[in-house]
Amino acid sequence: MLKMKMRTPLNERKRFLDHLEDLRKVIMKSLVCFGIAFAVALPLVPMLMQWLAIPLSRAADEHGVLLRSIQITGAFSASMRLAAGAALAASVPLILWFVWRFVFPALTDREARIGRYVLAAALVLFVSGAALCYRFILPPALRLMWRWHGWLGVSPEWTLNSYIIFATHLLLGFGVAFELPVLVFAAGVLGLVSSAGLRRVRRHVIVGVLVMAMLLTPPDVFTQIVMALPVILLYELCVLALALWERRPQA
User: Fold this and answer.
1) DSSP codes joined into one string, 208-244
2) How far apart are CA 89 and CA 92, in angstroms?
């Protein structure tokens, strides 16, 4: 049986301290990348705010919601949050690339090839999750919250900071949550897990997804369920795809 070739020969492997130095460089590059993205996003905050307010205008319909700021530093803190969220979303691809370059020498040829596909799929799923949330999840969620206020006989007056926190957490949360299936499938392709094992731990995974949704979304049950359901569905599709992969003819 052919042996997997390592990317780095034994006599050229780095010492532990050299790996720590490489890790420090990765962290510094990631922070610099985030800082540059933040500096670019900060002047664009008014345009980003108009884009982020579109789902709110769709949800409000004829109500004409006007976001309010009741704190002296409300506009400043909202701008920082919005710029940080945009910088994080923009710098994620480069940060993932830095991390990939860090772990690449320790991988076999097969692992490196799979890793490239995983990285590409992770980026696509992150954007897809955020776009799905922006187009189909955020407006109904806002509409439900608006009508819930009316059901209780309360006039909603939403603040700028609360809306930005709600919207950005939901967008980034959906993007991160959609990474789970591709990571599980990659682990299955590498032989770390199997479709039968994933079926056995299905109940634990569902609980874990609900906990993840609770941590990644604002503290209300509706948004947590809205996030958890697509991720659970993707997990089931991932298990099915892995089962089909396991049945393929072995070379």
Assistant:
1) HHHHHHHHHS-S-HHHHHHHHHHHHHHHHHHHHHHHH
2) 6
Measured CA to CA, the distance from residue 175 to residue 125 in angstroms comes to 7
Read off φ and ψ for residue 65, nearest 5 degrees: -70, 135
Higher pLDDT, 74 or 64: 74
By the 8 A CB rule, do 246 and 191 touch? no
213 burial (CB, 10 Å; 0-12 / 13-18 / 19+) is buried
d(C-alpha 128, C-alpha 85), whole Å: 17
Q: What residue type is 202 in one-letter code?
A: R
CB 210 within 8 A of CB 163: no
Look up the pTM and report it.
0.73
**In a 3-state reduction of DSSP, which class is residue 14?**
coil
